[in-house]
Amino acid sequence: MVKKLFLAFLAFSLVITFTGCEEFTDWLLEGTTTTGVEGELELADGVEGDLVDANVYLYEDAHFDSSSAESEETDEKDEGTAAEFKLVVDAGEYYLLAWKDVDEDGAVSYGDLVGIYDGKFGADEPEMIEVTEEEMKDVGTIKMYEYEGGGGGGNGGGTGSIQVSSSPSGAAIYLDGTNTAQTTPATLTNVSEGSHNITLTLSGYYDLEKTVNVTKDQTSTVDATLEAKGGVVSVDVDAILFLDGWYINYFYTFNHDVFLTNCVITIPSVDPFIDSDEYGKRSRGQTYTTGNFAYDPNNDGVADGPIPTGTHILLFEGYESYSEQEFSIEKEISVPLRRM
């Protein structure tokens, strides 16, 4: 009997729903807790236009990777100068991007209206929104600003485009330090004439920066190959003699970010010794210099002659920062290389 009454009630609810009685459906659902994000959009002071057809997106990363987006159209109010939104999502951490594609080019570009949670798009880093189960997170009012495209178009000069691609694809694109909310491959439009910096970021790969020149009404191209983190560690070494060969410096550069735990130097006719100053984080591509070493076989703090020539050996030990894979690399240098 209970089952029959329930089925009858369910059928009645479906009839009401399909006959367009939204008020009754809302009444039935009243008290049900939904997980998601809600709030309002509002034009920032001095910004002209309207928010008709604006959209709100929730991303799982601060780079606004399109593959992780949840989107929802807004309901405009106040003659289009403001809008409301509500997105139903699973519990988790999200980054919000509100966007009106003013020029309808399918990309965030100069003149579009853009907003982020607790900041200004292009000027501030996106703030994370934490959504818990059975919570409709109210993020308040999102201010919508006119996107200036990293300096593009607003100076009265000409504009061009930048076509950006990478291997692998899916890298977030930054133009002059501003997150464009696009990923490779993509074309940045309405970019001002002149020199611009493109930065590509992708999880598991090193950031890559390139400089590109934009010409009016032309499309410039950036095609980049990203280098994966966690690869085989290698190191380039060099040395220099100075003060008539009585002192020596060593230089070294790693191909990956590493943590150096040990550096042992071997000079002909001198016992191997540990350079305790060469310890800690070492950044990929940056050249580091050891201290000045003198030939002091008596260990009395006095240089007893020129640095012995021949094969010098440097032993580097540590681990790669991303994979934590340990390494031990021995490098030989033929001295003298050059003198100062």
From TrEMBL:
PROSITE patterns: EF_HAND_1 (PS00018), PROKAR_LIPOPROTEIN (PS51257). It comes from the Bacteria. Keywords: Signal. Residues 1-19 form the signal peptide. Residues 160-228 form the PEGA domain. InterPro entries: Carb-bd-like_fold, EF_Hand_1_Ca_BS, PEGA. Pfam families: PEGA. GO terms for molecular function: carbohydrate binding. PANTHER family: S-LAYER-LIKE PROTEIN (PTHR36194:SF1). This is PEGA domain-containing protein. It comes from candidate division TA06 bacterium B3_TA06.
